[in-house]
């Protein structure tokens, strides 16, 4: 996509150098911000998910359903938080690295700024998708540990469900009931995967990854 724009500014002999620069700039920019964004997103998503899932499924006998609901919710929340918080920092970081690396190609200042803007805009969604994916994967791992600990306490009878005192503050219609949640109640968790930004993010990732050649892994976060 961005190569069509670059042909307007540069001779063909520089295109391969531009592609290498873009790949390097994207990789550096993502690595620069991914750790902090993923850490914050996962922390918020896991805390929220744990509280809601353990309340809704407090009397659920099937632990697989509890894990399933937790995975759906935490993945969506972590990805959403990462998506919202990473875009502008990533835009700034990509532009800065592109500008730095492109200076070595002896491109005129005016053309360089146009290239930086075009390439950044064309690849920003790809970078966001990579960070969202990292947050999603980390969140699912983290919530498994949180849920497993709480379920162990429940099996041992040390923290199985909401206390009678805490239940009294919950409206009758929202209180957990013995047995499985109804289909309509469980569907609330399934609908987390239907968020519009997630569909767009997946489409963007599939459509652009081949052009830039970014890897999917960015090390421990």
TrEMBL record:
One of its GO terms (biological process) is negative regulation of translation. InterPro entries: CNOT1_dom_4 (IPR024557), Not1 (IPR040398). Residues 19-155 form the CCR4-NOT transcription complex subunit domain. Coiled coil: none annotated. Residues 210-221 have a biased composition (Gly residues). One of its GO terms (cellular component) is CCR4-NOT core complex. Residues 202-221 are annotated as: Disordered. This is BnaA04g18750D protein. The gene is BnaA04g18750D.
């Amino acid at each position: 996509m961005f190569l069509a724009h670059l042909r307007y500014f540069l001779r063909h002999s520089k295109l391969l150098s531009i592609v290498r620069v873009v790949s390097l700039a994207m990789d550096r920019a993502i690595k620069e911000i991914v750790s902090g964004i993923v850490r914050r997103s996962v922390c918020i998503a896991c805390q929220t998910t744990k509280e809601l899932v353990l309340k809704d499924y407090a009397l659920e006998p099937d632990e697989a359903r509890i894990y399933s609901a937790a995975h759906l919710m935490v993945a969506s929340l972590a990805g959403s938080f990462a998506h919202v918080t990473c875009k502008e920092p990533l835009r700034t970081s990509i532009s800065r690295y592109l500008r730095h690396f492109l200076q070595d190609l002896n491109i005129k200042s005016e053309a360089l700024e146009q290239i930086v803007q075009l390439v950044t805009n064309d690849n920003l969604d790809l970078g966001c998708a990579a960070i969202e994916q990292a947050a999603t994967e980390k969140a699912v791992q983290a919530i498994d540990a949180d849920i497993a600990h709480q379920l162990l306490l429940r099996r041992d009878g040390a923290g199985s469900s909401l206390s009678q005192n805490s239940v009294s503050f919950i409206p009758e219609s929202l209180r957990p009931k013995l047995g499985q949640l109804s289909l309509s109640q469980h569907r609330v968790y399934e609908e987390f995967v239907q968020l519009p930004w997630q569909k767009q993010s997946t489409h963007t990732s599939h459509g652009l990854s081949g052009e830039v050649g970014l890897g999917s892994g960015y090390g421990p976060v």
